[in-house]
Amino acid sequence: MAAIVVALGHSLLKTSPTPSSDSAATPGQDSSPLLPAPSLSDRPPSHAPHRESRGALDETDGVVPDGATVLDDAVPAVANLDAELLDGLRQAARDAADDGVTFTVNSGWRSAAYQEELLRKAVAQYGSEAEAARWVATATTSPHVSGDAVDIGPDRATEWLSEHGSAYGLCRIYRNEPWHVELRTDAADRGCPRMYADPTQDPRMRQ
């Protein structure tokens, strides 16, 4: 009987699937599991840390209601974005709509309190401040808090921006965050700058 149990155990080990990195990863990226963009429509709730209950935090802190787009002026996470960034996003969104692509805002401007909460949760999830820093910045360094960054979804929208975004000054900044977009005003002429592997490589995060 014991021999049968052992044999079955070996069989299960051989057939168990090998964990893989998030589907948003691109070839050549770090193979560590990615922290997905909040609430992409094609991902399960367990992969949506920015949508979970946050107690006193609400839309005035940058919590984004379901279905918000870059055109929603009534949503603080959108309305409080840098004016030039928002203008570029809206121009791009109108042109992307001609291709049947909609830009959903998964996260935009955030209050310092919201950013601190996300960082606390990231430290708990990843087990250390150093690992959490690959995904979530501090309230003093985050471009979300200053209104200079937006997380766009779903995947079709991020793919569209990867191909066309530079014409609007919209650039991916980190290889491990395909949803994270910032404004680079000279990108239309010079192209988007080379991406950092993750936020820990960004000099702005070391202030």
Automatic annotation (TrEMBL):
One of its GO terms (molecular function) is peptidase activity. InterPro entries: DD-CPase-like, VanY-like_core_dom, Zn_M74/Hedgehog-like. Residues 80-174 form the D-alanyl-D-alanine carboxypeptidase-like core domain. Residues 15-43 have a biased composition (Low complexity). This is M15 family metallopeptidase. It comes from Streptomyces parvus. Gene3D superfamilies: 3.30.1380.10. GO terms for biological process: proteolysis. PANTHER family: D-ALANYL-D-ALANINE CARBOXYPEPTIDASE (PTHR34385), PEPTIDOGLYCAN L-ALANYL-D-GLUTAMATE ENDOPEPTIDASE CWLK (PTHR34385:SF1). Residues 12-65 are annotated as: Disordered. It comes from the Bacteria.
